[in-house]
Each structure stands twice: as C-alpha cells, then as structure tokens.
Amino acid sequence: MFDWITGFVVRSGYVGVCLLMLAENIVPPIPSEIIMPLAGFTAARGQLSLVLVILAGTVGSLLGAAFWYYVGRRLGSERLKHLAARHGRWLTLAPDDVDRADDWFRRHGAKAVFFGRVIPTVRTLISVPAGIAGMPLPQFLAWSVLGTSLWTALLAGAGYLLQSQYERVADYLNPVSTVVVVLIVGWYLYRVVTFRPAGREAAK
Predict the structure, then answer these.
(1) CA geometry: angle 90, 108, 189, nearest 5 deg
(2) How many CA atoms lie within 13 A of 197 on its CB side?
(3) Using the 8-state DSSP alphabet, how is residue 195 labeled?
(4) pLDDT digits (tens, 9 = 90+) for 96-154
(5) Distances (CA, A) of 101 to 29, 77, 104
(6) Which stretches are transmembrane (predicted)?
(7) Domain boundaries, the chain
(8) Is the pLDDT of residue 4 over 60?
(9) Which of 6, 95, 106, 158 is the S-S candidate for 81 at Cβ 3.0 to 4.6 Å?
(10) pTM of the prediction?
C-alpha cells in the first residue's frame, strides 16, 4: 500500500493528494494517517511542495466534509425523527434523542466540528449532524478548515521530517484509528441491544 500511494502521488501530484483525501472522507478506503505522511515524504524528496501538499489534502478533506454536510442538511431533523420513530433500534435513536442531540449541537457545534476533524472516523461523521442542525455553511467550513488544516499539516509534517522512516507514523497512528473504530462499533452494538423506545419505558 505504501508503494502504491507514493507512486500515485508522484504520478498525479497535488490532484492525487486531493482525490485520496476526498475518497478517505466519503468512503474511507485508505486512512489519512497513511495518505498525508506519504505525501509529506514525497515532498521531502523534492518532488512536491510541502505547503501545497497540505493545501491539497485540506481541500480534498473539505470536499468530503461538504458532501456529508449536505447529506445531513437534506435529511433534516424532521425526516430523521420520522426515521427514528420507524427504525429507532437500528438508528439507536428515538425522536426525543434527535431533539436533544440537535440542541446539544447548536450549543457546542463549533467546538464539535473543530475537534471532530482531528479524530479518526469522527472526521467523517461530524459533518452529518452539522448539516442536520442547520449549522451555517460558512461557519461549518471555517471550523472545518481550522481542524482539517491542523490535522493534515501534522501528518504531512511528520512524513516530511521522518523521511525514510515515515512508516513509523502509520505504525503509531493506525492502531489509534483502529481503536476508535472498534469503540464506535462496540458502542453502536451496545445501543442496538439495549435500545428501548421511549413509549415502552413510559408504559412501564
């Protein structure tokens, strides 16, 4: 995978970095923890500019974030509440949960977007509630730019500084990404198993 990504980045340049980060944010086939350090490593060899690598990675990531933001915006809270009423167990949501989550996001949306953009897996997921809550697009993009540019700069900079030892970045960060994914999946399964519709709890 390392050789393939490096070769792809060398052949396609900044467009390739942008496309890989876009794909990582829509349907994560390759984590950014591998893409950006390898792009930084390529810049360290003098084949690309580190600044432009970071810019390309940020743009690609933002395009993916905007995609999921519009998915959430199109879905909307009312439609989500309707889905929660019909398929609450699998969504692990009751209609009241949607209202509470919407209220929480409206209070903490800026911080949630900023910090969410630097957490594996959450980077993709955080865009959906932002769209559902109707967070203004300029505000969403501004906080996403801050979080995303910080993340891509850290990863690309690590690859640039480590150069031939760039694989260490993936060695450290891949387990972190795996743990986050396992925790999210485990929490989802727990919610499915223990889910109780609000009406049933009230009836008791």
Answers:
(1) 20
(2) 11
(3) -
(4) 767 777 777 778 888 888 988 887 767 777 888 888 888 899 999 999 999 999 999 99
(5) 29, 10, 5
(6) 12-30, 50-71, 114-134, 140-162, 169-190
(7) 2-203
(8) yes
(9) 95
(10) 0.73
Residue 30 carries which side chain, given as an amino acid letter? I
pLDDT above 90 coverage of the chain, percent: 22
Burial of 181 (0-12, 13-18, 19+ CB in 10 A): middle
Amino acid found at 128: V
Is 156:37 a contact under the CB 8 Å cutoff? yes
The Cα 30–Cα 19 span in angstroms is: 11
Q: Where are the alpha helices (DSSP H) in 163-204?
A: 167-194, 198-203
The structure tokens 């393939």 sit at 4
How far is 98 from 81, CA to CA, in rounded Å? 6
| Two structure tokens written together for 160 | 């640039």
- The CA distance from 191 to 199, in Å, is 17
90 contacts 149 by C-beta, under 8 angstroms: no
Token pair of 132 as six digits: 């559902």
Q: Which residues of 7-41 are buried (b: 16+ CB within 10 A; e: fewer)?
A: ebbeeebbebbbbbbbebbbebebbbbbbbbbbbb
Quickly list DSSP for 80-107. Answer: HHHHHHHHHHHHT--HHHHHHHHHHHHH
Yes or no: say if 77 and 133 are a contact pair by the CB < 8 Å rule.
yes
**103 Cβ contact list (under 8 Å, min separation 6):** none
Give me the phi and psi of 46, to 5 degrees please: 85, 10
